[in-house]
Write a structure and sequence with these properties.
PyrdxlP-dep_Trfase_small, 8-stranded mixed sheet, globular, PyrdxlP-dep_Trfase, alpha/beta, pyridoxal phosphate, 4-stranded antiparallel sheet, nicotianamine aminotransferase activity, Aspartate Aminotransferase, domain 1
């Protein structure tokens, strides 16, 4: 197997093959070139999150997280004693970031803002203009952007995927990614941290050195997976990706149409990326439910359908539904959800 080498060593061609391949892959979408020295390999994107939160967790500092968001950020920041401040994502505007809210909660101790695009859990994909506004807001506030782009290129709606690293000359960006989602190999556990910082701000602030120090005391991804990455990136055909996008697009369309046909739940924004959609519960119609947790538990018990309570993501009385399953199973699931909502709907007078 060619290019096998540990992710921590940069001194020989074998060790650099994988980070170099990832740098070239990410550079395709950027107006500047990344090098192997800008890439730090991790055991999946989960470890990439762990590394960045640990690096940024200084006494008295805080970080801005989206609401709703990916719950691992919450647990890692709590573990690292890093204060969390939440900004809202606005469902009526395609889950865009509430930038006025961001400016209201940031202060001199705020170290970074996390932007998840394409979004888990919302299924949104941000436009170039909105990403530019996020970057400019971060610049004004003196914030680092942590760009969680693990679902990069899984965009099948009106907005194409654009990495926020495009604005790396405006504000320093640290991109977190993985092969797990786009290539559909979650068990391989290979992710990365990429410093998208052509102005060298992160290097001057010794953030790069802190990342490397943390990486050096943690485990590498499996060596044989590292060795396979250059060939996987170079030789995966576009048809493979297009088939995945077609399947996700069809599933998202079906999901959105089925939700519109079910009284008691609503979807304010059609999913355009990732594998998820956020759905609002109408508890004024659904009889006898205390909240989203109650709804999810009873749906699982009565219909054997599992959806995630929105309260786990920071948004009470919503649920997250994944559509990354085969169409017949998805159809069956929504028939069960419809039956459940009809059975528990309040009688109209």
């Amino acid at each position: 197997m060619e290019g096998v080498g540990g992710g921590k060593r940069r001194g020989d061609d074998g060790a650099e093959a994988t980070p170099r391949a990832i740098a070239e892959y990410l550079s395709r979408d950027l107006p500047y070139e990344l090098s192997a020295n800008d890439i730090y390999l991790t055991s999946g994107c989960v470890q990439a999150i762990e590394v960045m939160i640990s690096v940024l967790a200084q006494p008295g500092s805080n970080i801005l997280l989206p609401k709703p968001g990916f719950p691992l950020y919450e647990s890692r920041t709590t573990f690292s004693n890093l204060e969390v401040r939440h900004f809202d994502l606005i469902p009526e505007r395609g889950w865009e970031v509430d930038l006025e809210g961001v400016q209201a909660i940031a202060d001199e101790n705020t170290v970074a803002i996390v932007v998840i695009n394409p979004s888990n859990p919302c299924g949104s994909v941000y436009s170039y203009d909105h990403l530019a506004k996020i970057a400019e807001t971060a610049r004004k506030l003196g914030l680092l952007i942590i760009a969680d782009e693990v679902y990069d290129h899984l965009a099948f709606g009106n907005n194409p995927f654009i990495p926020i690293g495009v604005f790396g000359k405006t504000v320093p960006v640290i991109t977190l990614g993985s092969i797990s989602k786009r290539w559909l190999v979650p068990g391989w556990r290979l992710g990365w941290i990429a410093t998208c910082d052509p102005n060298g701000i992160l290097k001057e602030a010794k953030v790069n050195q802190s990342i490397e120090n943390y990486i050096n005391i943690s485990t590498d991804p499996a060596t044989f997976v590292q060795g396979a990455i250059p060939q996987i990136i170079a030789n995966t055909k576009e048809d493979y990706f297009n088939k995945i996008l077609d399947q996700l697009r069809n599933a998202a369309d079906l999901c959105y149409d089925k939700i519109k046909d079910i009284k008691g739940i609503t979807c304010p924004h059609k999913p355009e990326g990732s594998m998820f959609v956020m759905v609002k519960l109408d508890l004024s119609y659904l009889d006898g439910f205390h909240d989203d947790m109650d709804f999810c538990c009873r749906l699982a018990k009565e219909e054997s359908v599992i959806v995630l309570p929105g309260s786990a993501l920071g948004l009470k009385n919503w649920v997250r539904i994944t559509f990354a399953i085969d169409i017949p199973s998805l159809v069956d699931a929504f028939e069960r959800i419809k039956s459940f909502c009809q059975r528990h709907g309040k009688l109209e007078t």
